[in-house]
Here is the input.
Amino acid sequence: MVAWSRVWFWKIPMNKTQRNFITGAAGRIEVTVDLPKAELLSTPAIALIAHPHPLFGGTMDNKVTQTLARTFAELGYISVRSNFRGVGQTEGIHDEGIGETDDLLTVLTWAQSEFAAHGDVVLAGFSFGTFVNSMLAPRLSAQNQAVARMVMVGTAAGKWAVQAVPQDSIVIHGELDETIPLYDVLRWAEPQDLPITVVAGADHFFHRRLQVIKSIIMRQW
Here is the structure.
């Protein structure tokens, strides 16, 4: 049975970032929630944000991950991030994306209950997080949980078996990505007829290009 500690976020002013802990299959999961301004929150819906690889310094406080969370809070979503196993105050050890997918499902279930959020979920990820989200999406579909849209930044094609995604997904990649070459992402996208938005001059971590990520999502939403 999955348990979690409960905090009444609605007693805290909107547009704030809050941290909490819930319990997953491998122990404690550290969770961050970015709340939208009250006037933007019509039908509560969750944007679930997944961070880059934990064995290479990836955390939910990564700048790209934070940019995604804040962007979706501005769009009126309850943005939820969590540290993968072995990162920060999250317990457990790295599980090659399998346990991480389980944990994201646990986090989503908690968030939907905590905020009475019944709208379609958005899945947004960076690097390794795109791989985990690509595995989570079909599991949600099997549970009749609709995914409103997917956002993939620095898609981890060629490094992990990133699954196919819907054609309306927003896929953003840096022209000069040295970690996941643009070529690999194009080859992954080609059989899906999936468009890619390439950010000129951007590296894998989008140094000095974070605002461009936000602008692309805002324009395409």
